[in-house]
Amino acid sequence: MFNPTSIAALIIAASFAGGLNIYATILTLGILTRFHLASLPPGLESLGHLWVLIACATLFTVEFVADKIPGLDLVWNAIHTLIRIPLAALLAYHASAQLSPQMQILATIIGASIALIAHSSKTAIRAAVTPSPEPLSNIALSSTEDVFAVLLTWIATQHPILAATTALAFLLVMLIAARKLTLAIKNRLKSLFASTQDKVI
User: Fold this and answer.
1) How many other β-carbons are positioned within 10 Å of the β-carbon of residue 183?
2) What is the DSSP string of 151-165?
3) Which residues neighbour 116 within 8 Å (Cβ) at sequence distance 6 or greater?
4) What is the C-alpha to C-alpha distance for residues 100 and 66, in angstroms, rounded to an integer?
5) pLDDT the model gives residue 200
6) Which residues of the chain have pLDDT under 50?
7) Which ranges constitute the DSSP H helices of the chain?
8) Is 39 left (phi over 0), alpha (psi -120 to 50) or beta?
9) pLDDT of residue 134
10) Closest by Cα among 77, 193, 196 to 129
11) What is d(CA 152, CA 28) in angstroms, rounded to the nearest whole number?
């Protein structure tokens, strides 16, 4: 039986993982419940259905390739702003099905918010890395995100408090990194604009 604390911790960790790679997150949860490798809240048991596993495995394969191609990864992540956050919210909604309606709504909002922050921070970091002339940094970063999403989702089913703490710590680090990168890009653009104006004058 899941208690509110373990459900909240699972939602935090899974929402963060979903913000990185929603298909890997759902696929991992689905495999774990289908093969009885972990117990999930009753509302998430449907993730073990075969059609869910096939759909997520297919989409994960597509994302695995698309997310490692410079340029295409930015388009892919932009499109998935409309996919990762709603699906993470849906996961949180079903994970909290045994809680009160008010708590279920709160859990859904929290899940969507965490996924939004994780997704936005990931996109900002990738926007800074993608222009790099060599593709290895982009591939390495994308692969790390994939592995981390799967690993964190698995840990969330075994040690939810540990997973939630880890997710929140990484969320803070990503926010700081994304902010610094955004400021660096703005400053760079300002300097380029200023130098262009000087040349025109």
Assistant:
1) 10
2) HHHHHHHH-HHHHHH
3) 19, 85
4) 40
5) 57
6) none
7) 4-34, 50-66, 72-79, 81-95, 101-129, 136-158, 160-200
8) beta
9) 67
10) 77
11) 10
| CA angle at 16 for the pair 14 and 41, rounded to the nearest 5° | 15
* Rounded Cα distance, 104 and 102, in Å: 5
Q: How many CB atoms lie within 10 A of CB 72?
A: 13
Q: Is 136 helix (H, G, I), strand (E, B) or coil?
A: helix
- Residue among 129, 114, 130 nearest 167 (CA): 114
Which tokens go with 181? 């990168």
Report pLDDT digits (tens) over 54-107.
999 999 999 999 999 888 998 999 999 999 999 999 999 999 999 999 999 999
The pLDDT assigned to 187 comes to 80
Distance CA 111, CA 145 (A): 18
Q: Which residues contact 60 (CB under 8 A, 6 or more apart)?
A: 21, 23, 24, 27
Q: Which residue has the tokens 């509110």?
A: 4
* DSSP at 132: S
pLDDT of residue 190: 80
What is the helix (H) or strand (E) element at residue 191, kind and residue range? Answer: helix 160-200
Q: Identity (one letter) of the amino acid at 33?
A: T
State the amino acid at position 124 in one-letter form: A
